[in-house]
Amino acid sequence: MEQRPPNAEAGARVLVVDDDPTVAEIVTGYLDRAGYVVDRAGDGPDALARAAAHWPDLVVLDLMLPGMDGLEVCRRMRGQGPVPVIMLTARGDEDDRILGLEVGADDYVTKPFSPRELVLRVESVLRRTRPAPAAASGLLRAAGLTVDPAARRATKHGAELALTIREFDLLAFFLRHPGKAFAREELMREVWGWDFGDLSTVTVHVRRLRGKVEDDPARPRIVQTVWGVGYRFDPAAGFGEE
């Protein structure tokens, strides 16, 4: 498998997976003009084959594919290696969008969508994969967790955590702001870089993050809910008895 490091600069490889030729052609055209190298696939098996031949820096993945749906494609790709995924869905049902986030999609866009907005989402996700600036690359430690922003590596009591890009960014942000409560709108702005969007994105990512950093995700101690406000990271948690 050809592996390329994630890159938010022009020239990053984007795999567009959509069985609608018109949508795929429009998305490909906009991404190509934005300076990305674009591969196209019309179904799940083709997408997996193309990813194996040329590992993408990011995947734009339609949820409703014939045969193997986008959720299964996402699962299989994530089984091969870390890759950012933006899910496309024509459905308006919130459960479908949340399901995409639950399987590890970093973002989703609901059809019909603006191709320009999609390009901005691609840029936003890829920007998060850039190495951290030297001033911000020091190790972050609290609650038994260690985050290395430069290596984009996180551990809990020495054990590696398998985090998606957004989960990593969310955890790093919490460690940089211990003890402070943040509204979901603030987290969306500071972590996702968006001034607007579906706040369920934040809710799902917090739930997924808790599943990986908490001893008991049903009774979170590290990432706590502040009712009526949002969430707070407790740097003293993670140690001692329940």
| Major sheet description | 5 strands, parallel
- Distance, first to last CA: 45 Å
Radius of gyration: 18 Å
User: What number is the mean pLDDT?
Assistant: 84
Descriptive report:
- The longest helix is centred in the last third of the chain and has 14 residues, at 200-213.
- This protein has a five-stranded parallel beta sheet with strand order 2-1-3-4-5, with helices on both faces. The protein has a four-stranded antiparallel beta sheet with strand order 6-7-8-9, covered by helices on one side.
- It has helices at residues 21-33, 44-53, 70-80, 94-102, 115-127, 165-176, 184-192, 200-213; strands at 13-17, 37-41, 58-62, 85-89, 107-110, 140-142, 145-148, 153-156, 159-160, 181-183, 223-226, 230-233.
- It is α/β, with parallel strands linked by helices and 242 residues long.
- Mean pLDDT is 84; it is low at 1-8.
Which features characterize this protein?
242 residues; alpha/beta; 4-stranded antiparallel beta sheet; 8 helices; disordered N terminus
